[in-house]
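Listing S7. Sequence submitted for prediction.
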Amino acid sequence: MTQTFADRRWTSPDGLSLYARDYAAAAGPAKLPVIAIHGLTRNSADFGAIAPLIAQSGRRVLALDVRGRGLSDRAPDPMTYQPLNYAQDVLALMEQAGIARAVFLGTSMGGLITMALAAIRPKAVAAAILNDIGPEVAKEGLARIAAYSGQPVDTPGWAEAAAYVKLHNAVAFPHYTDADWDAFARRVFRIGTEGSPVLDYDPDIAVPIRAAGTRALVPNLWPMFGRLARARPVLLVRGETSDLLSAAIAAKMKKRAPKMDHVEVPGVGHAPMLDEPEAKAAIFPFLGEVD
């Protein structure tokens, strides 16, 4: 399959070489770019379906590999694997790429980074799409993710890698076929030095989570969310069966931010891949309203 993006690298404030997929905008009037940020154990490949479509609609898309994931450097100090550090990395990308403002598309942890950015550099965030994440998360979902993040896996081949991702994600995607799980595995694993698939992230990303203990399970980010939603357009995408962003938390968000757009993706848990018809039907009109 032809690659639809260019490889871009930039340097973090503490000297790491970081990576992004850079999708060029289709010809037409200049529009604000989209910066897409993935979840905790994922990488830029998660946006492989939606990013080209956004680019075809006339917006440049930068889909990031957050430090410690994908083609970005692993951090010598694992305690830098935290949203505020990630946000500073994104600001460094914007500065080095000459981007003053962007629309942010954040899945799970990427949404937390987006909220942090709106707090520390409000003018950088023109609008935000939060994919299955809010200022509060359900304990059950976060505990599920924390339980497997950074743990060793035995995957001598792609069949075992597909079985691994199915084990941890079948609850979210009950309709997936064997081919879907194989494709999923190839997004989140890479071939390691010994020739077998290995998870494409630094296991030490879990160190700050373990260090925080139970204090990390229900972070209170409502003030950050309030600042994000008060000053700019926001679209919330929620998986109907999500165990991380409960229906009650989503309702609370809508009450706090009545102007926020909202879509629920049926039959999907945490987190929608954004290639679902319902997700696309909400994202593109939303982007169409952003200058």
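Caption to Listing S7: primary sequence and predicted structure tokens for the chain studied. The longest helix spans residues 83-97. The radius of gyration is 18 Å.
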